[in-house]
Design a protein that fits this description.
This is Transposase domain (DUF772). It comes from Petrimonas mucosa. By secondary structure, the chain is of the alpha/beta class. It folds into four domains: 54 residues, no CATH class; 205 residues, Nucleotidyltransferase, domain 5, CATH 3.30.420; 110 residues, no CATH class; 31 residues, no CATH class. Helices cover 56% and strands 9% of the residues. Strands 1, 2, 3, 4, 5 and 6 form a six-stranded mixed beta sheet that branches. Helix 7 packs antiparallel against helix 10 and helix 9 packs across helix 10. The longest helix is centred in the N-terminal third of the chain and has 30 residues.
Length: 442
């Protein structure tokens, strides 16, 4: 049920919390379309996970496109009514000329920027990752011994490994040589555990592997992490391709941002475009990417949605490559940013042009404000889904809820009041006439 997901992200609560909230709130049940108040759960919390797996980011993006089209129609209708009250005859003549124009002019503004949606993971360090992997490997060994009926468990030195890990992790300042020695020891302990698991699995011949799907996934992740840590240890480096930063969410990658708060962020990177306050996710990926490569596709998507190219594109410097500047010039689209080449000795811009450029450049902060709204108000910087697919849906749901709140501003008050009256009549609820209130608010 999409309504449950909307309530969840508006109230910024977890799956169990939103089900309990709906269970005791008649207004939320009315929003979900229930015929009568009930004390029973509308669904089990685990069902929301299945819903996220089926409703991905593309579904929420299609819903957002519908919201944008309806919002543009409402605005166009309001402007049309204002024009009719002023000069109806002149407006009709202008409308005929506009319909005959085969090349309509550019219209609207498009803002773009990228951000990282932080995943809910512990800050990764090599020592902590190796310790978690070793503990998970020991759990797998215990599971194998239980299912295979092994009486004498193989020696894993788990107590010694944990003691050595705690001795270093509790140090306030860790010298480089001490940390490197501790990492080497944890690598050896983990390598021993992986070797034991492989030997125990080799004894199974005509039977399937006695691991559940999740346990088998952990085993593959642990082996891959061990290989990465050995490579970095030998090369004395902290960089490796597709580095794993969480054994519970192996799809999460470190993304270097260089921000003042944190130089490296861990989560999915999204590139969004902002159209009249509506946000759309144009690029979603767990690996780092150059957002400047998406400018042309974002502009074309704007044209597909509105029927025209934007009149102004407000972007950061990373978007303004030579190829993108050439593309914008061919389409007759203005953009905010300094031109390439050396600055002229004498300024030939008027005071009005300078003021206009500063104002247009400052308007790009609206997309930064949209990021702040999502991260502070709806938890876009704390994605608590554990799977790659459900994280994708979680991010799409937050963006859609923000667009839904934005769309409420486009609904005229008389239309909203008339809709409310119709709902009250259908529900057989007596209310006072709302016409005086409509006249006061008009």
């Amino acid at each position: 049920m999409l309504g449950v997901i909307i309530i969840k992200h508006i109230m910024k609560t977890d799956d169990r919390g939103v089900i309990e909230m709906i269970q005791e709130n008649p207004y939320m049940q009315y929003f979900l379309g229930l015929e009568a108040f009930t004390y029973e759960q509308v669904m089990t919390p685990s069902l929301l996970v299945s819903i996220r797996k089926r409703i991905d980011l593309d579904v929420f993006e299609s819903l957002t496109d519908d919201l944008i089209r309806k919002g543009l129609k409402l605005k166009a209708g309001a402007k049309q009514e204002e024009a009719d009250t002023v000069t109806k005859d002149d407006e009709d003549e202008d409308g005929d000329d506009h319909d005959d124009d085969p090349h309509p002019g550019n219209k609207g503004k498009l803002q773009m920027d990228a951000t990282v949606c932080d995943a809910d993971i512990k800050y990764p360090t090599d020592l902590d990752l190796l310790n978690e992997s070793r503990q998970k490997a020991e759990e797998l060994i215990d599971e194998l011994c239980l299912k295979l009926g092994v009486q004498d468990k193989p020696r894993t030195y788990r107590r010694a490994a944990r003691k050595e890990f705690l001795n270093v992790s509790k140090m306030k300042r860790k010298p480089a040589n001490v940390l490197r020695k501790a990492i080497r020891k944890q690598i050896n302990y983990l390598k021993r555990d992986v070797r034991i698991i492989n030997k125990m699995l080799d004894t199974i011949k005509d039977e399937p592997i006695p691991f559940e799907r999740r346990q088998l996934k952990y085993f593959f992740v642990i082996q891959h992490l061990l290989e990465q840590q050995e490579t970095m240890y030998k090369k004395k480096s902290h960089q490796v391709e597709d580095r794993i930063v969480s054994i519970h969410q192996p799809h999460v990658r470190p993304i270097v941002r260089g921000k003042a708060k944190a130089k490296t962020e861990f989560g999915a990177k999204i590139n969004i475009s902002l159209l009249d306050g509506y946000a759309r996710v144009d690029h979603f990926h767990w690996d780092a990417f150059n957002e400047g490569q998406d400018l042309q596709s974002q502009v074309e998507r704007f044209r597909k949605l509105t029927g025209k190219y934007p009149e102004l594109v407000q972007v950061d410097k990373i978007y303004l490559t030579r190829e993108n500047r050439r593309f914008l010039k061919e389409k007759g689209i203005r953009y905010t940013g300094e031109p390439l080449g050396r600055k002229p000795v004498k300024e030939i811009k008027s005071r009005y042009q300078k003021r206009k450029e500063r104002r247009e450049a400052a308007e790009r902060n609206q997309v930064e404000g949209k990021f702040g709204q999502g991260k502070r108000g709806y938890g876009l910087n704390d994605i608590r889904a554990r799977l790659s697919s459900t994280s994708n849906s979680w991010i799409g749901a937050i963006i859609f809820v923000m667009n839904l709140i934005r769309h409420m501003r486009d609904i005229p008050l008389p239309y909203f009041v008339s809709l409310l009256q119709k709902l009250m009549i259908v529900r057989n609820i007596n209310i006072y006439p709302l016409k005086p209130q409509m006249e006061l608010c008009a």
